[in-house]
Amino acid sequence: MSDKPLWAKDLPLDMELHRFTVGADPVTDLSLLASDAAGSAAHARMLGETGLLPEPEARALVGALRDLRAQALAGELVIRPEEEDGHTALEHALEARLGTTGRRIHLARSRNDQVQTALRLFMRERALDLGEAVHAAAAAFLDLARREEASALPGYTHLRKAMPATWGMWGAAFAEGLLEELEALPALWGRLDRCPLGAAAGFGSPVPLARGRSASLLGFTRVQASPMDVMNSRGRHEQALAAWIVSAAGTLEKALWDLNLYSTEAFGFISLPDAFTTGSSLMPQKRNPDALELARARCRELRGLAGVLAHLAGGLPSSYHRDHQFLKAPFVELVAKGEELFRVTARLLPGLVIHREACEAACTQELHAAARACRLAAEGLPFRDAYVQVAKEIQDGTFVPEPAAAAGLQLERTGESLDASRAWIRDRRAAIDTAFESLFAWGNP
């Protein structure tokens, strides 16, 4: 077995240049190894079923790749420094197990469609993981809204008190905002649910392949038909998933800001759980909201990583270019950090302590001014006249507040919609698991 790159042609190799071209791949590709093994298994099985490889060899490849995938998922498969990427590590591992048979895996395949397939499988899996994490955060907001549905909270505009609200209204707002993101997930999934395997270097395979069979083996519902579009889509789907993550994080960012503000001594509306605060290195009395502040910063960090993807993917002509290699590291980082953000938030929310008396005391009489103006207008006074009258009452101290009608939060409907989104995620995951079980059952023990 050689440690040379898969593309080596026995020509001189400048090692400094080689290290530059390899970059971060030996680390980044660890996240893609399991997906690469699954894509390779589908390719090997398709070759065996179509007669392009002898069936015993194809079965041996699928069996070995099943074991390698399990090792990758357990974090036991490594990419050695002298191996340039996960493709090389995987092929070397196959050769070590199967000898010459391991070297047959690359028939009718390019590293271009190999990495696209691994990335597509990775994105598909991570989209479901992210969906579950966003669902967990949304459910935590909904639980808070149910628990504190009628608990008073001043509503603010311009960071100035505006109208009366409730913690139920606050929690429901973020549950619904994240639900909206979950309801957008199936459309994103539709973009990812197209198999690129068989596109080779972007111009199709020199030998006839059963691309539809490869797609079904991996649980895709269709093939990404144009081999040139497979290469052109490098970066496109990464940006689509990144945009979804950033949008959901943008919803969360406002909640994190509010909680930081409401937990200050000046507001005193809430206390954070001790496990989510840290102490000062100098001041013994301090408990700092580091988890909230870092989570808030994480939202901006995700936008920055998405910007890196946009810059790297833009400004290129069609087909594959080595520039695309640099997309992997920020994309894998963005996905991991996005999922972590939502899971941490879901763990934080149940531990919040709401100080109801402080919130009620902050709901001072003038917050009901709009309700009184609307009542006067409903009784026949033009609203602009009612507005002026109420303003005068506040100025001369004669204002008597009128309680506003309670907002219809429709918490049960939000809960039902969240349940439907979670069921969709579970159905997609079950379909993938079934496809993979069938794929790897074909391999030799």
Describe the structure.
There is one protein chain. This protein is mainly alpha-helical. The chain has three domains: 15-104, Fumarase C, Chain B, domain 1, CATH 1.10.275; 111-362 and 410-441, Fumarase/aspartase (Central domain) (Fumarase C, Chain A, domain 2, Up-down Bundle), CATH 1.20.200; 364-409, no CATH class. The chain is 61% helix and 5% strand. The chain has 16 helices and six strands. The chain has helices spanning 15-22, 25-28, 33-49, 55-73, 86-98, 111-147, 167-192, 211-217, 227-232, 236-262, 290-313, 328-348, 356-362, 369-378, 383-396, 411-441, and strands at residues 152-157, 160-166, 270-271, 278-279, 287-288, 353-354. Strands 1-2 form a two-stranded antiparallel ribbon. A two-stranded antiparallel ribbon has the order 3-6. Strand 4 (278-279) and strand 5 form a beta hairpin. Helix 6 runs antiparallel to helix 7, helix 6 packs parallel to helix 10 (236-262) and helix 14 (369-378) crosses helix 15 (383-396). The radius of gyration is 28 Å and the shape is elongated. The two termini are 24 Å apart. The mean pLDDT is 93.
